[in-house]
Every structure is written in C-alpha cells, then in structure tokens.
Amino acid sequence: MQTLAITGSQWGDEGKGKITDLLSAKCDTVVRYQGGNNAGHTIIVDDKKIVLHLIPSGILHDHCTSVIAHGVVFDPEAFKQELDETLKSGITINPKKLKISENCPVITSYNKLLDAARESQGPVKIGTTGKGIGPCYEDKISRKAIKLKDILNKDILSRKLAQNIQEKKILFNNLYNMTFPSVEEETEKLFELGKLVEPFLADTFNYLDKNLSAGKKILFEGAQGVLLDIDYGSYPFVTSSNTSFGGIYTGAGLMGGKIDEVLAITKAYTTRVGEGPFPTELKSELGEFIQQKGGEIGATTGRKRRCGWLDLPLLKYSVKASNLTSIALTKVDVLSGLDELKICHSYRYRGKEIDCAWPGIDMNEVEPQFSDMKSFHDDFSSNSMSEELLAYIRTIEEAVNIPVGVIAYGPERKQILFRKDYF
Annotated catalytic residue: which of 13, 28, 115, 150? Predict the structure, then answer.
C-alpha cells in the first residue's frame, strides 16, 4: 500500500487525530488537502494533550514530512499561534518537516468579520466556527482570493486587498454596520505574518508528484466528515470544501495515481455540532450521558456535540459518496455498559422504507427505524471482545459492505486495536 486517505464518515469529530497519528508513523508524508483551522485533531501522547488545527498530524514524527496543500484555506495568524504552541510542546517544526503550498488562499480579517456577522445577524444560522472559512472559499471561487505567495510582496498584497474589499465594504457599512481594518492596516499585518510563513512555502504539487514517483508512502488527512462536504453533505449545514476523498484530487493532486485505501473514521454512535437535522439524536438524559462520558466538546469551538444512535443509512451513503473501503470504529468504550443500545437500520421517507440516504434528501422528513441491540459490557483489558460487541460490529459491516479494520476504545495511542494492516 502506497497511498491511504483518512476521512470522517459522519459530521466530523469522529476522533481522526489519534488514528492519523499512529498511521503517519508508518509513512513518509502526511497531506492536508481541504478545510482550514476550523478543524481540530486532538492527540493524547503519554497523558499529554496536543491539539492541531492547521498542521497535519504527521508533524509528531521526525521522519515524516507534513504538507498543507493548496486546497486548504490558510490563516497566517492562527498558524503563528499554533506553531508557537506546538513548539512549546517540544515538537520539532522546520521547513524540512513542514511544507505549505504557496497557492493556499489566505483567510483575511475581512473573511473572519464577514463570517461572524452572517452567523450573528444573518437570517439563517449555519453553525459555523466563525473563523472565516466559508468567506475565504467564496473569494477563491469568485477569483478574488489572496494567495500565500501574494503576502510576500507588499505592493501586490495592497493592490489585491483593495480589490478584495470593494464589495465587502458595502456589506460592512450598509448591512452589518461594523468597523473593519483599512487596506493599509491589513497589508501591514499580513506582510509581517508572511515573514514567518515564507520559509515553509513550497511547490507542494511537484513535491507530491516526486514522492509518488519515488514510491513514497503518503497519507492524505481529511479535516471533517463526508456529511459536511459542500456537494455531498447535508446542505446547507455543511462546510465550504470537499471533505470526501474527491477533494484530494482537487486540493492536493494525485498525479496519475489512485488511493489504495480510504479509511472511514466512524464513531460507534453519531454526533453533530452546530445546526442542522439529526435523525437519530437523543434529546434525553441518555443523550446527555453519552455526551458527558464521551467528552463530546469540540476541540476547535468548545461547543457541546449533540449525540444519538449510530445512523446506518447515513453511513452507507458516506461509503458510496466517498468510495470508503474500511472503517475505524472509535469511542466504542462510550457505549459499553449501557442498559439500552439501538442502531438505526433504515428510514421511513415519503411513504417508503430506505436503507441509504442520497444528496438532497430532506433529513427533516425522515423517520429513523431502529433495531434493538444486545448491550455489551467490555472493559477492553485485553484484545478479546464480547459476542455482543462483535454482533454490533457485524451489523455495521453487513449494512455498509466494508470491513471494520480498526477499533478504538479510548483517547490514547495504546487504546487502538488494528484488525487490518495499513501500510
């Protein structure tokens, strides 16, 4: 196996960090291909918590090169803070270990202000992180984005910022009634931050091309889950990038190659942070118990995650939408010991029973159909699993037709059981 992609199969927050961390130890390069600092990967190493937002998880391994590819929207201010915190943790970061595409769109102060104003004053609350991700992708699509290479030249940066702010001025002044930095102020700020970023800038497209040609082992690290994909997710309550594995081709490049394995990080139950429909949500004391036991609080936002039973129609859809080939089932320990255990096997939707969702399905109309499962009471003190837990796993495998290759039963590296070899 030369190439492996890791992506969340639900609405994100599935616990990708520790899986990516372990598998990146076996590869040469780890690549982030979409999203921005709206993601948070929490990794526990020897009881020490490390939270990464922009920097790929491969940075924890000295033999591994981490790449932030051009599909990522990049906040230089957030990068400075994360770089400082990561260095303080004793992790080595230098231009050999970290390469950032010079073509990443830059998240400006204007993007962040616009994001926050829309969420607080707009007619529809999407539940964004307010970090400017969506508005930055809008700039990219409308061909007004500032690229990282632009912030190294003050004249180019000033000219592009003046063009970028033209339409936003009208929104700030006339719709949202808010102040914003002048072009001169924003130019100075980004230009100074550019000095910090410059040593890490690289032609990541050709770097990855050479790695692939040389037979290097590459891991592509997704930032969110398939159900937040701008095209395949539960629109409009989605993020602004392609979180599915197709985003690798547009956001990093896979020159003449293919992905050998697409590993779907999947919680043993379902969670969602922010707004949007959630068919299997448990609005009960049991839902609160799972939230508390699972520590379901966002690493980036600090918001509580809504919790519910595992949704197989959505998981089956994610498998098809993102060509997922195996599952890493995380947080299994959270369900251990429950008196009640259910799994959603299908929906009633507009008079029919369906076992797989699809793009555009009105999630507000579905009625989840549940199967009662036998509770399991594993303490995970050994690698053996109870028949009840194995039955739960088989139910998932038979529904989605791909194997569960990894079981995770805690936040630490050692609390992971591999049932399949990767790399």
Answer: 13
Look up 379 and say whether it is catalytic.
no
Annotated active-site residue in 21, 28, 41, 150: 41
Maximum distance among all alpha carbons in the chain? 67
Report pLDDT digits (tens) over 109-120: 999 999 999 988
pLDDT in tens, 129-185: 889 999 999 999 999 999 999 999 999 999 999 999 999 999 999 999 999 999 999
Residues 93, 226 within the same domain: yes
Q: How far is residue 127 from each of residues 305, 320, 340, 359, 404, measured CA to CA in Å?
A: 12, 26, 30, 20, 31
| Whether the predicted model's global pTM rises above the 0.85 cut | yes
Q: Are residues 160 and 21 in the same domain?
A: no
Residue 398 lies in a domain: yes
Nearby residues of 31 by Cβ (< 8 Å), 6 or more positions away: 56, 66, 67, 69, 208, 218, 219, 220, 221, 248, 252
Which range of residues forms the domain containing residue 281? 267-418
Instruction: Specify whether 295 is located in the same domain as 393.
Output: yes
Query: 303 with 343, same domain?
Result: yes
Q: Is 209 among the residues known to form the active site? A: no
Same domain (yes/no): 275, 374: yes
400 in the same domain as 344: yes
Rounded Cα distance between 69 and 103, Å, is 8
